[in-house]
Amino acid sequence: MLASPLSLLAVAVGGAAGSVARYLMLMMVMQWAGTRFPVGTIVVNVIGCTAMGVLSELAALAWSPSPELRALLLVGVLGGFTTFSSFTLDIGVLVARDEFAAAAGYFLASTLFSVVGFFAGLWAVRSLVSVSL
């Protein structure tokens, strides 16, 4: 099944918005934490994965977004915002600097906290939905 032109536009607009939001968040975190270790990428991935958990669970339990809105938010905005391509580049930079322990720590922290964020988002929505029922 091919995507509709409206869904493609939604992904493009959402992706642009998510990418700009990622860039702004990275700049803000770098001002706070510095640039030696890619804390900003971890922050973005955890926030993005948590938001993905919240939105996907809301869509499953209590909300019926249109295919275009789902494409805009889940594929576009969150796809543009989360940074697993940046994640791999950051690992490559750490390895190139022979900082293998930092690369391993970064890999583990990003993976663990992003997955935990996703399930935290699911849990938050389930808790709120069960309270309101």
TrEMBL record:
It is a multi-pass membrane protein. GO terms for biological process: cellular detoxification of fluoride. The keyword Phosphoprotein does not apply. Belongs to the fluoride channel Fluc/FEX (TC 1.A.43) family. Keywords: Cell inner membrane, Cell membrane, Ion channel, Ion transport, Membrane, Metal-binding, Sodium, Transmembrane, Transmembrane helix, Transport. Fluoride-specific ion channel. Important for reducing fluoride concentration in the cell, thus reducing its toxicity. This is Fluoride-specific ion channel FluC. GO terms for cellular component: plasma membrane.
